[in-house]
Design goal:
Layout: H1 3-13, E1 18-22, E2 30-31, H2 32-48, E3 56-60, H3 65-76, E4 80-82, H4 90-99, E5 104-107, H5 112-121, E6 127-130, E7 139-140, H6 141-144, E8 162-168, E9 176-181, H7 182-195, E10 203-206, H8 213-219, E11 227-230, H9 236-245, E12 250-253, H10 255-262, E13 277-280, H11 287-297, E14 301-307, E15 310-317, H12 319-322, H13 331-334, E16 339-340, E17 345-349, E18 361-367, E19 374-375, H14 379-385, E20 391-399, E21 405-410, E22 415-417, E23 420-422, H15 424-431, E24 437-447, E25 451-460, H16 468-479, E26 487-490, H17 504-512
Parallel strand pairs: 1-11, 3-4, 3-5, 5-6, 6-7, 10-11, 10-12, 12-13, 13-14, 25-26
Antiparallel strand pairs: 1-2, 8-9, 9-19, 14-15, 15-16, 17-18, 18-20, 20-21, 22-23, 24-25
Length: 520
């Protein structure tokens, strides 16, 4: 089953159910029967305009019904989705679309200026199409699809065909392209269906960016005619309002937004009775905040652990996994990332590729059809991550006798802040361009709001001065606000190994020593 097949089943068996509703528009929503021909028309227009099966396509848009419809049209046309994030700096999206061979750009008027820059800078993109009216770049979607039929017949199902290339960071600062085929996503869906509740009449609140996990998680609700209620911005008070107004059953948020919701003065007075699964993921979650969330939102807090290379469902933890029959929390289980999902083979391995005894730390590794076929045009990186015949996550964990895994450290230097991946080298490269900087190191430090916050530790040239704000602004201009440091510490000498390498482990100890675990 492909994502478009799940959607078609929803349209076949639940035609009058609401498929999408834009919360900010406060509209009646769009039924499956209304959405279906639009997805066919977009697919037909792609082929009528010369984009064949396998064409690489980016969608630059906020969370919205029209963005979801465009995505489904792309899937029906058997194109390859390049999930570019509107929060990225334009230069980042230009780089991704160039290296991942982008051919067509759909965009929303909110990002018209960015679309113009992308079209001018990416040599492979032939045109840009505005999906929500008449934009200043290229044709509107209506004009582009004029005369195209409301029916498009896809080719035969090939589960090994690529449906997306997800960008992920690398220690060199350049994102690798994670090739994702239909088989990977089918396995992800089956894992989630096995561990969580997905019944008729669900309503999924789409708040996190659709280019992130929220888009794929929303697609899981198609099979039983579920509704995706869509918000373009993660405003904590409006999220609470929407849960009650739309009887939301499922939602996914990164920890930072959960923390913001918990900080609302009236958070305990809202109605959350409809919730079945409040999924928290994409970043480490504070155990204390997770317990507070259970007290506020009910025993509905749900977690899943995954990565771009093995999306969203390596391990899972449903409410019944950490609540006993008396309604008491099993804190050891709550602190874990759950147990391996049923369609995965997961093991904790040592440096030689041997499985370690239960209770001993090692790298979390897995096999199975959830795992990416490899990195786009990067066989060397693919081979490296497949050492000993396993996919290596780069996370260090401990598995207990019941199979629950707790992450204790991270092999990579990657920082996960507010659900987004930041790779220190990329930030360090920008900081090093400042005339007063001699050397620097970027690490993640514990933060109540973001899970981890980006911190720069800077060694200045002798006799030079510069302010914290000037360095933060430098990074914001080059990389965007997500990757810019939240704070800067100045240091006389960075700690180094005998070979001259900066000892980031030593730097982290100062900030993580009182957290109770290596990764907050």
């Amino acid at each position: 089953m492909r994502i478009i097949d799940y959607f078609d089943n929803g349209a076949k068996y639940y035609p009058e159910n609401i498929a999408f509703v834009d919360i900010e528009d406060d509209g009646a929503g769009m039924s499956y029967a209304q959405a279906l021909p639009q997805t066919h028309r977009i697919a037909a227009a792609m082929h009528a305009n010369g984009y064949e099966q396998g064409a690489h396509v980016g969608i630059l848009a906020p969370n919205s019904s029209i963005a979801f419809l465009t995505l489904l049209g792309l899937f029906r046309a058997e194109g390859v989705w390049l999930p570019i994030n509107p929060r990225n700096a334009v230069a980042t999206n230009v780089d991704l679309l160039t290296r991942f061979d982008g051919e067509l750009l759909f965009y929303h008027t909110e990002f018209e200026d960015e679309a113009r820059q992308i079209l001018a800078a990416v040599p492979g993109i032939r045109e840009a199409v505005c999906i929500n009216g008449n934009g200043g770049v290229g044709k509107s979607l209506d004009a582009w699809s004029q005369g195209c039929p409301a029916r498009y017949e896809s080719g035969s199902v090939d589960m090994d065909a690529t449906f997306a290339i997800f960008p992920t960071g690398g220690t060199t600062g350049k994102s690798k392209g994670v090739v994702m085929n239909h088989r990977c996503i089918h396995t992800m869906f089956q894992n989630c269906y096995s561990h969580f509740n997905y019944h008729d009449n669900t309503t999924h609140l789409v708040v996190a960016p659709m280019t992130h996990s929220a888009g794929l998680l929303g697609c899981m609700h198609f099979a039983r005619g579920g509704t995706n209620a869509i918000m373009s911005k993660a405003a904590p008070d409006l999220i609470c309002d929407a849960i009650a107004k739309y009887s939301v059953t499922h939602l996914f948020l990164p920890p930072t937004v959960v923390y913001m919701m918990l900080a609302l003065p009236d958070v305990k007075e809202r109605d959350y009775s409809s919730l079945q699964h409040f999924l928290v993921g994409a970043a480490p979650t504070s155990l204390g905040k997770l317990k507070e969330a259970i007290a506020v939102f009910g025993p509905v807090m749900t977690e899943a652990f995954g990565q771009s290379e093995a999306p969203a469902a390596i391990t899972a933890k449903a409410p019944w996994d950490y609540m006993d029959k008396d309604g008491q929390i099993n804190e050891r289980r709550l602190a874990s990332i759950g147990r391996p999902c049923v369609n995965n083979i997961v093991a904790i391995l040592d440096e030689q590729g041997a499985e370690v005894p239960r209770g001993e730390p090692g790298e979390i590794c897995l096999r199975g059809e959830l795992v990416t076929p490899g990195y786009y045009k990067n066989p060397q990186a693919t081979a490296e991550v497949r050492e000993f015949g396993w996919h290596h996550t780069g996370d260090i964990g401990v598995m207990d006798e019941e199979g629950f895994i707790t992450i204790v450290d991270r092999k990579k230097d990657m920082i996960i802040t507010g659900g987004f991946n930041v790779f220190p080298n990329e930030v360090e490269q920008v900081l090093s361009t400042h005339s007063a900087v001699q050397d620097c190191a970027v690490i993640g430090v514990p933060d109540e709001k973001w899970g981890e916050a980006v911190k720069a530790i800077v060694q200045l040239l002798p006799g030079q001065e510069c302010s914290e704000q000037s360095l933060v602004e430098l990074c914001k201009q080059a990389l965007g606000s997500v990757k810019a440091p939240k704070s800067v510490d100045f240091i006389d000498d960075l700690p180094r190994s005998p070979a001259g390498k900066v000892l980031k482990t030593d730097l982290r100890k100062t900030y993580w020593s009182d957290q109770g675990r290596a990764v907050n």
